[in-house]
Amino acid sequence: MPFAITPNTTAILGIMATSPPRRITRSSLARFAYTGTPHSARLEKSRNGDLASPDIEDIIPDTTPPPDSSARKRKRTTTVSVPGATRSRSTARSIKKEVDIKTENGPEAKIKVESEDVTTTLPTPAKQPKRQRKPARKTTDPSTGESSISPPTDWEEIYGVVRSMRGEGGAAANAPVDTMGCERLALKTASPRDQRFQTLVALMLSSQTKDTVNAVAMHRLQTELTPHAPGAEPGLNLENIIAVSPARLNELIYAVGFHNNKTKYLQQAAAICRDRYGGDIPDSIEGLVSLPGVGPKMAHLCLTAAWGRTEGIGVDVHVHRITNLWGWHGKSGSKNPEDTRAKLESWLPRENWHEINTLLVGLGQTICLPVGRRCGDCELGLRGLCRAAERKKVLEGRKLRESVAVDVKGETVVKVEDERIEEDEKELVVNEVVKQEEAVED
């Protein structure tokens, strides 16, 4: 059935179309205002006709906790002041919080808090200035105009540490030079003249040769040289060196470096000593240097060991290398052992001239090796005194030292350290000596 529009319907639609829009005022929106009435009560009023319609906010459940009057009160805080104490920010907060909680209980708690020890943070220490290291340098006195050589700034500290390392129980103790050095290879049973000659021979053989190998060669000369004449004493002396055939002498010293040249030098030097010095060795640096195969280093060491006089420093490769590692000769360093000797003698006290060779040779043979330096075992590296120390090895050495256990027995403190015996190095030396002996015998 089609929909029919009656006259009344047309009249109503006309009125709606021609009437202006209703004005919206605050009073018309008052029924939507939230009055704080709970959600259930508002719904009940809406059903009873007291409330036109529920508000959208009434549909969403109210989860806001009831207001607490005590939370709005301002808390009084009491701070604890400690004269002369410096507190960090985090420490100050913890103290304040503790006081706030405990002061709520009354004045007794407050007194208790004020009597407690306050943990303070000491001020950050000032950064230590970088160690100033200066090599030996030439200085001039402005008042007199005289020039002099100032020693390296830290040489005494370094020298003292090395001396302790080379002492009994030190990391560089019992080096080969201590038992097989050239000045210790002469037989004590020989005459003073023969002892001086044997010291000279040991020094001449030591060039480019390790002490262990040199000791083996010297032992063969002392035990296997035949007497130069019937009834004469066998062994190492000037007459037997001159009388032995070059081939036999070369065979006896075959293990040392440059043995062919040293065979000629030994017999030539022995002849000069016989002709110019009455069968004894020279007693001066000039006379010793005049011998074939003898340089300044050998001359100074020989004069000290054989004649008991020290007129200079015997600088070998170890002394030359190590003092340059320490920076004692400046950034440019020293050119050669002779340059090192001249620079050391310009400032090093004379009483240290003979000792420094033995100290640094032993250090170079045990710790400061030419290849594979053991910076982690060196006190100089661990204390930051050696500028050439390898940082990685030093850090490993410090960690190892920190892990050493300490056993306290009464008043005695005993350090229990892991014994790290250098078996590889010992075996290498033994094998080398055996190899050299077998080569000589073949």
From TrEMBL:
The organism sits in which domain of life? Eukaryota
Q: Which UniProt keywords apply?
A: DNA damage, DNA repair, Glycosidase, Hydrolase, Lyase, Mitochondrion, Nucleus
Q: Give an example GO biological process.
A: base-excision repair, AP site formation
Q: Which GO terms describe its cellular component?
A: mitochondrion; nucleus
| Basic and acidic residues composition bias: residue spans | 95-115
Catalytic activity, reaction form? 2'-deoxyribonucleotide-(2'-deoxyribose 5'-phosphate)-2'-deoxyribonucleotide-DNA = a 3'-end 2'-deoxyribonucleotide-(2,3-dehydro-2,3-deoxyribose 5'-phosphate)-DNA + a 5'-end 5'-phospho-2'-deoxyribonucleoside-DNA + H(+)
Keyword Cell inner membrane attached: no
Entry-linked SUPFAM superfamilies: DNA-glycosylase (SSF48150)
| Compositionally biased region (Basic residues) | 128-137
Where is this chain's protein located in or outside the cell? Nucleus; Mitochondrion
Domain HhH-GPD, residue spans: 205-366
This entry's Enzyme Commission designation comes to 3.2.2.-, 4.2.99.18
Q: Which residue ranges does the record annotate as region Disordered?
A: 40-155
According to the record, the segments passing through the membrane are: none
Q: Which family does it belong to?
A: Belongs to the Nth/MutY family.
Give the protein's recorded name.
Endonuclease III homolog
